[in-house]
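Lab notebook, bench 4. We co-purified these components, and the gel suggests they stay together. Before we commit to crystallization screens, I want a quick structural picture of the whole thing.
Request: model the full complex, all chains together.
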Amino acid sequence: MFLALPLLLYATWVLYPVCKTLWLAFTEWDGISPTAQWVGLKNFRLLFRDPVFWKALSNNLVWIAAFVTIPVALGLGIALVLNGNVRFNRFLKIAYYLPMILSFSVVGLVWSWIYHPASGLLNSTLAGILRILKSMGAPVNPEAAFNIGWLSNPRLVLWSLIGAAIWRQVGYVMILYLSGLKTLDPAVLEAGRVDGAEGWKLFRYVTFPMLAPVTTIVVVLSIIDALRVFDIVYVMTRGGPFHSSEVLANFMYTQAFRNYMWGYGSAIGVVLFLLSLGFILIYLRQIAREEG
Amino acid sequence: MKRLFVLALVWIGALVWLMPLIGALAVSLRTNEDLVSRGFWSVPEKLTLANYIRAWEQAGVSQYLKNSFLITIPAIAGILFFSSMAAYGLVRFRMRFGKGLYYLFIAGMLLPFQMLMLPVFELANKLHLYDTLWGLILFHISFELGFGVFILRNFMRTIPQSLFDSAMVDGASEWVMYRKISLPLTLPALAALATLEFTWIFNDYFWALVLVRRDALKPVTTGLSTLMGRYATEWPVVVSGGILAAIPTLVVFLLLQRYFIGGLTLGATKG
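Here is the predicted assembly.
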């Protein structure tokens, strides 16, 4: 009785849509006409020959690679420092947390300004630095800084987006590690110290291995978040210019709602699903292990 | 010496991390002409709140924010209600599929939610919920059940069985036990869940994009995109809108930080 209503909601709005998308991926449909046409594997065959798909996939992989290294290292490092007795501890923590509280639409908006060529914070600051260098006699042209198109240069744009996303991600990783550090057994750390482990050694052979469960969760969550990233790309570039910052989720959205290719869009969704499935299972196994 | 170096790095990092927000605040207080003609790194001619007023009134941030609250508050109420019921059911009645159901809920919360996009859009259309706040609310309640059940079930499991046994002897029904025992004892977890869900739903962009089209119904997340398009050349107004949009979640976070962090860590690592 207690489960009936919640399950009904969950089945209608979550389970049924998942199954429906799995089915739609094998059909051709514009979302408007009365019936979807079964076409077998056609969507997947087309997808694997679509250069935009490969671009989006490789961008997602770059995003994953960046997400499991930079924010994890930064978040862990800062957590280690702030876990000790540091003055203004609370202020420092809040400084790193704050971006995490903001929606991606606010993050995207603020960073669109930061990256703006003529009036953005980044180019203004670069120009300022170059001006100082020039006044010291270096042969540089400060005005050149205003030509850097962080979001319009196809070679920079993906990294610009990832930079904004990392800004938001570090605080989250830090929170998870801070709480992980609190659960460590001080007796074991003490034993490590007695055995002569200090600084880097203590971290490498005692603290870090003890944090392994946290690291697993952090890495898995980072990968899943990097796979399904959408908001920040859509807000800042819509995948452009020329698909150079395309990701799978945005590609799917465009195919379905701009080009009315629901079957094709669903096939992209299924690829996303299959890519995350393994990591979802790792997460579930970790949870099951903690349950004992 | 080494320690001092590390501390200095953390401080510099913190300032770099705050810089985008400080910069945004500085821009929002200046006029567009001042900024365009003299650049960011200059002493402002004068400080003004005019950008905020324009963003609030003309650009419609006040309306967008109101919509965000109209979506978020009923959605949180629904999430707390339904996920506590489901968690109670999972904990109290040992069913054959209990554990499987529980994992199904967790798996849902990790799903690439784009998987749901098209059928949810279609379903909302069929039920005449497309382009209404109720469609969005209903979807959020259903989708967030996964996380809610995950948090609440773990917390409810720690309630000793003897409490229920003695209540049963006194002739209490399941409904009474749910209300009088489980809910009060789960209060800390409910608070953490509510705080987290507030930020998540308030910050949701994707589903607002998929399920709401009318400008009058847009929450502040998709509303900001409209604003960015309309005021593309006036960064001070755009940035002011962004800051106004961020205030509710910032206030909730600063006031309820303990619950927020408690909830996040409950979700990821159980101590």
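Residues 61-92 of chain B form the longest helix (32 residues). Worth comparing against the SEC data before the next meeting. Chain B touches chain A through 91 residues (CB under 8 Å).
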